[in-house]
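Entry 14. Ran structure prediction on the chain below.
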Amino acid sequence: MALTDAAIDKIKEMIVSGALGPGDRLPKEADLAERLGLSRNSLREAVKALSIIKVLDVRQGDGTYVTSLSPDLLLESLSFVVDFHRDDTVLQFLEVRRILEPAATALASRRMSDPEIAKLQRVLDELGPSPSVEALVANDLEFHRAIAAGSGNAALCSLIDGLSGPTTRARIWRGLTQEGAVERTREQHQAIVDAITAREPDLARSWATVHIAGVEEWLRQAL
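Output, structure tokens:
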């Protein structure tokens, strides 16, 4: 493992220094191993590890390339890690969401185009007067994903999207057990859209904080 870690560090240094850039093809294995002073086996293991986290793209019969290194691609591995969460860590994910999503909502109020805001309103309008909990949660996920995308920050959007999964069950549980949860969610979502429409970043941030903190507080009391 130590040799593999050293190989990973050397390849990373090539990318960080600019010797290799997005889309570049790595030299042949034998040449690269000699250049970096590595065994071919260590290099092979390093390439395998870096391909798992989307830094490298191994194309059979063609070679190994540096990926685009875009934030959404590199952060895909976050959702893989998050999938292994335990129920007692859901509160921690909600705490992180409470930090990130209000910031994304404030950015969205500045950066979303008028057509994007109109589409966000349509997402809310798609819910009927008495939606099922499952429909509400699906709509909630789409709503928050659209706002994260509207922030214009691909890294922030990917982080929020990766953190959404672990809190889905908590949202369903709340919808089933807390009186008035469905209507409260709808009202808070509308308040967020209204703040974004008015181009009021501080107000949008506040409503997003209230919305997520409500789920978090309910879960603290329920656990």
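The chain has a mean pLDDT of 84. Will compare against last week's run tomorrow.
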